[in-house]
Amino acid sequence: MAGGHGKRAFDPGSIGGILICFGSLGIGFFIEGGDFGALLLPSPIIIIFGGTAGTLVTSLPMSPVQWGGLLRAGFTSPVHDAVETVQTFVRLAEKARREGLLSLESEMANIHDHFMKEGIQEVVDGTPAEQILDIFMVRVDQMGKRHHVGKEFYAQMGGFAPTMGIIGTVLGLTVVLGSLGGADAAGLGHSIAVAFIATLFGVALANALALPVAKRCQIKSEHEVEYMNMLVAGILSIQSGDSPRLVRAKLNSFLSPIDQTRLAKVAEGGAAAAAA
How far apart are the first and last CA of the chain? Predict the structure, then answer.
């Protein structure tokens, strides 16, 4: 059965990388004798997270549902097995060669990838290849644009957070300078340190979370677009009546080297089973 395109699963890599980064910063701070309690101050937290959230709301007009989707996009990944999908197309090609394209109607229940199912349905309905290509390439293009917005969400966060940190530090220093006349040296040093915590939070939020997640979203989007292009190629290959061997060869070029090796092993296993 084809993979469940459209479904998403938790992406442990994004969370793992963030934990490693913040963990390393925390360990280094502890080794230097830092006091974690001194970092947990309400004013820098409000300035950084509240200010950054406000700038994002201003720059990216969206509904609450869309905001939730953007937040999830950075920490989830699409669920599909490209090798299994290629094998599904090969199986459909075999059936179409033996029984005709109309016989693929009976396979619809076994295809759980909505994009692939709709494409095969267009083939069964006799839609010309040019129209199938136009319809689905528009969908691929629109998906890429939606993914761009998700990447831009985290990229904008990475741009705004350090600026909010600087603003927070300037506000803190303004307060410090205003009270210079009645402050002792120890109190003055503490106040300056507190002022710079805002910059620390802003830079850390940008470089340890927002910008890496933005880059990860971009890479995942490129992989997803490549997978969708493979689906389009497979649908058109079925529509043109290509042999199962040719279908496998065409789609193999879309796979990563690791998946190409997996596909070769699966094909060798199938050939051995058929010979037996």
Answer: 24
